[in-house]
Predict the structure.
Amino acid sequence: MKQYIIGIFAGLLVLASCQERNPDLFMDISGVYFNNTSGGLTVIDSVDVTFVYEAEDVVEVPVRVQLLGRTAGEDRPFAVTVRSDNAQEGVDYELPQQAVLPAGQASVDYIVRLNRTPELKNEKKMLHLQIHANEHFDLPVNEVVQVSDTVSVLDYRIYFSDMFTKAPSAWDTNLLGEFTQQKFELICKVLDVDPGDFNDPVLMTLARQLYVCTEMSAYVQGEVEKKAAGEAYDEDAFDPQTGEPLKFTK
């Protein structure tokens, strides 16, 4: 981030030094760029969103648009395009009705709403956002150089799915057995557990996981008995490949 700031303002200082008789020249710049960070330090050009820890079916993703130059006394529209090869607007995602930098503000969050759909269980989708020049804004910065990489600030990608890339941090295999998304979702459904709790060891204590193990083992056993008796049963309690009941022990 330090190199990023130095890079931008070193360029502005060069402009100013070359125009000694017009020191306010650089203040005439009116530009925009994407300014999204990870941990508030590293500039990023993409984000990976998963619904697995979300209780709701809509996730709002803020995309920060930053002003380079003076703020203005009136609202100013900026130009953003969004395209995708596998996501459909109105179905998989929704965009703001307008892209505007409000009067007096140096930045604004362009909010992209992602919708949970059945396809996201098996497919990761992607949105490609690009910011463009228009009658109100130029594009004075197109990338930033950081210690580890060079990042575009004119392009931003949002990847989203309803799949796990790894087990949640608070999942204890000694109590709940090998992690699978099916077991995770069954726990949340049957015991009404907030999905996000599994990423917080303070909330998902060993005692609570022992309770989950006991309750889910009893639940699965009950579904096994229903199936054997020819009664309606919960298919989610069985492995879809082998037909075996799920195990919540190591």
User: Anything to note?
Assistant: The first helix runs from residue 2 to 18.
